[in-house]
TrEMBL record:
Gene3D superfamilies: HUPs. Residues 3-116 form the Glutamyl/glutaminyl-tRNA synthetase class Ib catalytic domain. Keywords: Aminoacyl-tRNA synthetase, ATP-binding, Ligase, Nucleotide-binding, Protein biosynthesis. One of its GO terms (cellular component) is cytosol. One of its GO terms (molecular function) is glutamate-tRNA ligase activity. This is Glutamate--tRNA ligase. PROSITE patterns: AA_TRNA_LIGASE_I (PS00178). GO terms for biological process: glutamyl-tRNA aminoacylation. Belongs to the class-I aminoacyl-tRNA synthetase family.
Length: 121
C-alpha cells in the first residue's frame, strides 16, 4: 500500500498551532510508512485568501522542517479540472446538480446549527 498524506490549509491567515500539529502528524505518518507528504493550498475562497497568508504558511512549513515531497498545489488553479470531472460524473449519473437557492442552502445551514446547539445543551 502506498501511503500519501496531505496538509491543506486555507491561506486566510497565519499558520496556527492546530494547523502545524496536523501538518506534523501527516508528515510523520507519511515518513513512517515510506510514503509521500503533499501540501495543497486551499485558495478557493478568493475573497479571504491572500498571497501574504500563503507566503506565511509556506515559511512556517519551512521553519518547521515539513518539506512536501512534491511542489505545493494551489487548489484554485485546479478549478477547470474539477469542473471537468464533475461534468463527467454528472454524465455518468454518479453526481447530481443542486438546484437549491442560496437562501434555501442558508436556511438548511441555520437549521443544522440549531440542531447542533440543541444537542450540546
Amino acid at each position: 500500500m502506498n501511503v500519501i498524506t496531505r496538509f491543506a490549509p486555507s491561506p486566510t491567515g497565519m499558520l496556527h498551532i492546530g494547523g502545524a500539529r496536523t501538518a506534523l502528524f501527516n508528515y510523520l505518518f507519511a515518513k513512517r510508512h515510506n510514503g509521500k507528504f503533499l501540501l495543497r493550498i486551499e485558495d478557493t475562497d478568493r475573497a479571504r485568501s491572500t498571497d501574504e497568508a500563503t507566503a506565511a504558511i509556506l515559511e512556517g512549513m519551512d521553519w518547521l522542517g515539513l518539506t512536501p515531497d512534491e511542489a505545493p498545489v494551489m487548489q484554485f488553479s485546479q478549478a477547470a479540472r474539477h469542473t471537468e470531472v464533475a461534468n463527467e460524473m454528472i454524465a455518468r449519473g454518479t453526481a447530481f446538480r443542486c438546484y437549491a437557492t442560496p437562501e434555501e442552502l442558508q436556511a438548511r445551514r441555520d437549521l443544522g446549527e440549531e440542531k447542533r446547539q440543541a444537542a450540546k445543551a
